[in-house]
Design goal:
The chain has helices at about 5-10, 20, 35-50, 55-70, 75-80, 90, 105-120, 125-165, 170-184; strands at about 25, 30. The termini are far apart. It is built from 9 helices and 2 strands; from the N terminus they run ααββααααααα. It has one domain.
Length: about 180
């Protein structure tokens, strides 16, 4: 069952008003929003593991989604403090797979964009962003052993590209990424 099926089964769900939300539930579904967020995030994280089939998809997902969360307002951005993976600015800033040699949108980013739009329509913007951030963090924590070597591989690739193009300032920045990843 996909995360979207959960919402299709409950067409009566309504966006909570501030009064309804003070009790922590939505009257029409008796869904406790604060309890639903981790469950929704867990399901999204599991779906991500199934659709990010290549190293390229996984790396671009990390870069793009981290960048999205960094640009979110608080409290979603603050959730990144819970994540054991801290990306350097050069790894994520402004990265979009469709604007790169990949030439197409990332399937993981697309999944989370659709989920965020759905959550925002049912709950609110902050909760939607927090749920997406939490799903990202769960994915990272569940896969951290494979993600750091992948980040080293891509940092090496980008570092070498910068050196070959005489872009030494960026090569140094990628070198900093490599140094920090190899220390950990």
């Amino acid at each position: 069952m996909s995360i979207f099926d959960l919402f299709r089964k409950k067409p009566t769900a309504t966006k909570p008003t501030p009064r309804e939300n003070t009790g922590g539930s939505v009257d029409s579904d008796q869904v406790h929003i604060k309890d639903a967020m981790p469950k929704l995030a867990e399901q999204l994280s599991a779906q991500l593991a199934g659709i990010l089939r290549t190293e390229e998809d996984t790396w671009w997902f990390l870069a793009e989604q981290y960048d999205y969360i960094v640009d979110c307002g608080e409290p979603a951005k603050g959730l990144l403090d819970l994540c054991s993976m801290k990306m350097h600015e050069i790894e994520h800033e402004g990265r979009k797979s469709e604007n790169s040699y990949v030439g197409k949108p990332n399937p993981g980013v697309d999944l989370l964009k659709k989920a965020r739009a759905l959550f925002a329509s049912k709950f609110d913007e902050d909760l939607a962003d927090m749920t997406i951030a939490y799903a990202f963090i769960m994915f990272v924590e569940n896969n951290i052993r494979m993600l750091n070597p992948l980040r080293i591989k891509y940092a090496t690739h980008f570092h070498n590209n910068c050196v070959s193009q005489s872009a030494f300032r960026n090569a140094d920045r990628w070198g900093d990424v490599l140094d920090s990843l190899q220390r950990n």
